[in-house]
Amino acid sequence: MEQLKAKLSEQEAHLSKLIAENTRLSELEAELGAIKQREEQLSEFTRRLTERNVNLQAEHLLTISRLEESEQHLEQCKTDALQSEAVTADKLAEHQLQIEQLQLALTDLRDQLQQSRDRESELRSELMVEREQSDLTHKRDLGRIRDLTRQLARVAQNRSMSLTSGLNPNRTEDANMMDSETADNESVCKLSLDSPTTSSHSVEVGAKSDWPTVNKPIVCLGNTLMISGEEKTYKEPSEQSELHFDEPERAAWIAKIDRLQRIQLRLTDKMEFLQEHCFQLTEELNKKSRIIQSFVLAQKHFGSAAPNSVDANRARIAQTGGLMASLYGGKHSKDAYDRDTYLEICQKLQAVLEDTLFKNITLKENMATLGSEISSLNNMMKEIRGGVCENCRQVIHNLKPTPPTSLSSHSIASIPKSVSRLSPEPPAFCGGGVHA
């Protein structure tokens, strides 16, 4: 019995061991199944991860190619913009040069036109003078011819009367009368040669008088007209005598023209000086009006009643002494400087203040122009960025401000992040999968 009990106990112990081994084997089988399932899951995850990695690499390469194309397009746009700016600058310089050349040509043409007009006016004045001279000469010659004709007629009449009478006393009287008439004519001729006014007056008188014409028969002793009875026309005086009589009047007219030209030149210089002075005064007036306009626009309550601070400032200045104190207080101080000195100092300070204000206004306008240019450049940059795709815009936003020549590690590292933000990982594989 004891042997059976011992054997039974041994069998029970062996059975318990077998049960324990069986349970351990079942646990191992269950764990093996779990391991196989985990292995299948891991293999599936590895496969999907490999596919995703391949897709990401393809997208990465595609994004890099697009980025390179965008950079090339941007560089091309920059080069085109620079070329267009250079071409525009060249064209602008050419146009400015052409404008300057045209202005110079226009100035030359204006000068030539002015010279032509001056020459035309001079020629017209000379022509008028020559016409007046020729008219005066013609009238004077006509008067002289009439005087000579009249004298010849009187001489012929006196000689005929002396021949008929045959008395010597009458002949001497006639000779005396002829001498007096010739002396009177010579004095008249001298007066006409001395002054142009007397000559013109004598010419007018001769022109107004109605004397016989030149073509008149002359009857005198020893002349062929008494024998033949034919009429012979009177010959005009020679050119030498005409030149001899015209020379003094021509010299007088030339002296008068010279004097008038000198007066005109002096008046022209004075007019040019006054025009330049008026131009300078106009520039100063425009500058001061611009300063006043800016000051009026800046002051909101300009033109209203003066505040109390002005009166207080005047009282304070009146207490300090000086010229302004004497002006404000109504009392003259002996220690103050001369009024002219103060006025000169005030004029200098006013000139400095006007220059400073004008420079400030010009600087303000330049700053406004610069601000408008900066805003236009910003709008241009926004338009350029708006024309790029979304992925390239984000990549450009993540890049450095300086355009890189090659892809940097930062830009390459930023591409998968942006792609992962666009296509997130499935929730089943977040954190490394199940039981990671």
TrEMBL record:
Its keywords, alphabetically, are: Coiled coil
Q: Give GO terms: molecular function aspect only.
A: small GTPase binding
Biological process (GO) annotations held by this record are:
vesicle cytoskeletal trafficking
Q: Show the GO cellular component annotation of the record.
A: trans-Golgi network
Q: Coiled-coil regions in this chain?
A: 1-38, 92-126
Q: What is this protein called?
A: Uncharacterized protein
Origin species, per record, is Opisthorchis viverrini (Southeast Asian liver fluke)
